[in-house]
Design a protein that fits this description.
This protein is an alpha/beta fold. It is built from 7 helices and 7 strands, in the order E-H-H-E-E-E-H-E-H-H-E-H-E-H. The chain has a single domain, classed as 3-Layer(aba) Sandwich (Rossmann fold).
């Protein structure tokens, strides 16, 4: 997600990527809440990575992007910086590039789909189009791996200073839409799971209008971990 910055639609250079062989290939997918921008604001990825390492899970974050920020080692390991988060990108931009990213990384086993439609809302784009894009993103992921598990956020709100009636209604509508997707788009082999990031979230968890501080990153990571503990392969 992003405040006033619009999506450029530009992608990164095509550096070579060695495809993961982990039994739990996890794709963090979304915009700036995935990407992070230390020291200005945090991604949830580092806190989630520590949770997973501490509980001795075998896993690998995948993606064509790498976080260049500095992170402290944890339990003797270096942070896994791979992700698919791009600040300012809308659902349409993500959908347009997704197949190309998956060709390079290989199919994920698990996707963490952050704040679906969040930048569409902030940029005043059409709600119906955002919903259709989000649904198509889920379909692309399932086509790439018919057994993929997709954790899709019922996204946390922005700061109360920016959450006017129109934006609040958009967020609530998308949260309800995500709950419907979890029910209607799950298959016998591919689970779509709504993860509630909005209940209990507050201004104190934000570094600015929409991005997480350390406490916010911990909050989001813990919500993800609660679900992942019942999803990951052992």
């Amino acid at each position: 997600m992003v405040g006033a910055v619009a999506c450029s639609g530009q992608d990164t250079p095509t550096n070579a990527i060695e495809k993961s062989t982990s039994i739990n290939k996890i794709l963090p997918l979304g915009a700036s809440r995935v990407q992070g921008d230390r020291p200005e604001y945090e991604s949830f990825r580092y806190e989630l990575w520590k949770d997973l390492v501490e509980q001795d899970w075998e896993f690998d974050f995948i993606g064509t992007m790498q976080d260049q920020a500095s992170y402290q080692d944890f339990m003797g390991l270096e942070f896994d910086p791979d992700h698919e988060g791009r600040g300012g990108w809308t659902s349409g931009a993500i959908l347009y590039r997704l197949r190309g990213w998956l060709e390079r990384t290989g199919a994920p086993d698990i996707v963490l789909f952050s704040s679906p439609g969040g930048n569409d809302a902030l940029q005043g784009l059409e709600y119906a189009a955002a919903v259709e894009n989000v649904r198509e993103i889920v379909e692309v992921l399932q086509a790439e791996n018919p057994e993929v598990t997709i954790l899709i956020e019922q996204m946390a709100p922005g700061h109360s200073d920016i959450m006017n009636d129109e934006l609040s209604q958009y967020f609530v509508a998308m949260q309800n839409e995500v709950a419907d997707m979890a029910e209607s788009m799950s298959t016998e082999s591919s689970r779509v799971i709504a993860v509630d990031m909005h209940t209990g979230f507050s201004d104190e968890l934000l570094a600015d209008d929409v991005h997480y501080n350390v406490a916010g990153a911990e909050f989001i990571a813990s919500r993800y971990y609660e679900v992942l503990a019942g999803v990951l392969e052992k």
